[in-house]
Amino acid sequence: MVQEPDPIALIPLAAVLEHDANNLIGKLYAAADWLGGDPAASALDEARLALADAVGVAHGLQAIFHLQALGNSHDGAASSQLFTRDEQSRLLSRLAESASVQAKGPKESLLDARITIGSQTLAAVLISAARLLRRRCGAKALIQLDMERPSPRSVQFILRSDVDRAPDARESQRPEVLALALASANLKAMGASWTDISERAGSWCLTLSWRNESR
Predict the structure, then answer these.
(1) How far apart, in whole angstroms, are the C-alpha atoms of residue 207 and residue 121?
(2) Which alpha helices (DSSP H) does 35-107 contain, by range?
(3) How confident is the model at residue 36 (pLDDT cuts 50, 70, 90)?
(4) Which of 35, 52, 157, 190 has the fewest CB atoms found within 10 Å of its own CB?
(5) Residues 139, 122: contact at Cβ < 8 Å?
(6) What are the pLDDT digits (tens) for 70-105?
(7) Helices (H) and strands (E) in the chain, counts
(8) 187 near 29, Cβ under 8 Å?
(9) Angle at 140 between CA 130 and CA 85, to 5 degrees
């Protein structure tokens, strides 16, 4: 049975989300300041960076809110869809904008695979995980996404970082961590699962897989 979010569990989440929302507002004000008057070329560069950062924060907040709402969401198995080139491209674009994730373009081997948890839920999980990984490994780390199809009824998405860094104790209160934890029961009900693999030297991976029905 899909579970509703526990209001008590949302209290610490609300506090950190307020902090992130304030950061987003600050980044937008910074971009506006850089663009004020007759901006120089260097000011335009700074404005672009501020706006890109703000877009990443906005994507992250949207993903967290989506995972929180899964208990009332209809973006589950009933809305499964083919993982078309357009769907793959949209996912890769959002990951690049939200956490500077690098990935090769759409894969032909996945075009007849079905996203059984819904494309928005898939994006929300991967964006939350990618932003958590980016926060852990730093702005200069290389984060890549590998999309694989180990069997006709399974699809895997693996986020890899070239930096091996243990999580900070404070990470447990990050909104991405809390949202993923609260969403886990709902994703299992949709036939999805993920596994954290943090012990590999030089990498940190998140693998998401689900039962994939044939077309």
Answers:
(1) 15
(2) 41-68, 85-99
(3) low
(4) 52
(5) no
(6) 865 544 444 678 899 999 999 999 999 999 999 988
(7) 5, 6
(8) no
(9) 45
